[in-house]
Amino acid sequence: MERYIQAFVDGYSGYARYLVHEIANPGWHNYFYALVGLSLAVWGLELLFPWRRDQPVLRQDFFLDLFYLFFNFFLFSLVGYNAVSNVGVLIVSDALAQLGIRNLVAINIQSWSVWAQLFTLFIVRDFVQWNVHRLLHRVPWMWTFHKVHHSVEQMGFAAHLRYHWMETVIYRVFEYIPLAMIGFGISDFFVVHLFTLAVGHFNHANINLPLGPLRYLFNSPQMHLWHHAEVMPDDHPTGINYGITLSIWDYLFGTAHEPYVDSHLKLGFPGLDTFPRTLTGQLGLSLQPTSQPHEPKTTSLETADLPATNTGVAHTRFGPLRARTASAG
Ligand SMILES: [Zn+2]
Ligand SMILES: [Zn+2]
Predict the structure, then answer these.
(1) Residue 227 C-alpha to ligand 1 middle, in angstroms?
(2) How many whole angstroms from 194 Cα to the centroid of ligand 2?
(3) What's phi and psi for 194, nearest 5 deg?
(4) Closest ligand, as measured to the CA of 255
(5) Which ligand does the CA of 156 lie closest to?
(6) CA of 149 to the centre of ligand 2 (A)
(7) Model confidence over 187-241: pLDDT tens digits?
(8) How far, CA to CA in Å, does 228 sit from each of 99, 114, 155, 231, 256?
(9) Nearest bound ligand to CA 159?
(10) What is the arithmetic mean of pLDDT over 248-272?
(11) Domain boundaries, the chain
(12) What range(s) does the Fatty acid hydroxylase domain occupy (predicted)?
């Protein structure tokens, strides 16, 4: 038990020191300034190439999302996730040791070039996250938390990181074993985090910058807006376009849906009008689902027959960067 307590304390103080160090030391290899710089860059593109020209620069919930941006990227880790995940990793490895399993590594890629290893991490994690995102839409208690992300009504880059902290926990848990099974020879995945953060911001941005044929490979604002649509197609009542960074999984597995380009799709989910609007209300969501993932929407004649909705995003689920790096390495 003392080891677990020590792991908790080390995780907490280690992350606090790390964050203070990041803020105090600007540079190219710095998560804090990368988040600030990328956010300003994508916001600049929104102003230069707006898709919905009638959308205010400071759109609805802009400041709420700005808070989520920093909360989910940094503060949540600072206030405890890093500490809790340290303990979790210790408990899992102790449990595996009891079963005689001391090493989860099934594929060793240490001898590969750095870029090949980064590429492998990116592909494996994006595919795992695509699957987790599907679960978030299908499992009622997970959907309860994921609704925070789908409560966005006016889309913009900062909505990327609007999500309940429980999502970070869910993504980390599902990523842990697949990534631990790969023996990486590097522990610095900064460039992958940066790339997925940039694409995630772009997917949510109010930007009209068509990708052409690349849209079959990468997620885009046009495709992701359909993911956030209030009403889902009949043949995919629980959701569509689950891609995080890559859209290719949706095309491969038949969940891609982009019938036409519509910059003013109605976003949200049935019952959004009674969903908490404040930060404290959203973060305090209980574990008791208030609705099923796809409860029928019957509020209008046009949509009465549709199996309703859900939807959601692409998010880079950055969360605890150090913990993630540690689990990956
Ligand atoms: Zn979603
Ligand atoms: Zn989204």
Answers:
(1) 7
(2) 17
(3) -65, -45
(4) 1
(5) 2
(6) 6
(7) 778 888 889 999 999 999 999 988 999 999 999 999 999 999 999 999 999 999 9
(8) 43, 36, 9, 9, 13
(9) 2
(10) 93
(11) 2-328
(12) 120-255
Q: How far apart are CA 122 and CA 199, in angstroms?
A: 13
- Whether 300 shows a pLDDT value over 70: the answer reads no
CA proximity to 224, closest of 275, 163, 165, 156: 156
160 and 203 Cβ atoms separated by less than 8 Å: yes
Q: Is it the case that residue 305 has pLDDT exceeding 60?
A: no
Residue 304 has pLDDT above 50, yes or no: no
The proportion of the chain whose per-residue pLDDT surpasses 70, expressed as a percent, equals 80
Spatial contact of 174 and 85, defined as CB atoms under 8 Å apart: no
What is the distance in A from the centroid of ligand 2 to the CA of 17? 31
DSSP state of 73: I
Tokens of 15: 């992350």
**Structure-model confidence comparison of residues 68 and 221, the more confident one:** 221
The reported pLDDT for the residue numbered 297 is 42
- Tell me the Cα Rg of the chain: 20
Please report, for residues 90, 159, 180, 219, the alpha-carbon distance to residue 144 in angstroms, rounded to integers and kept in the order given: 29, 18, 29, 24
Which residues have beta carbons under 5 A from ligand 1 (an ion)?
Answer: 312-313
Residue 78 pLDDT: 56
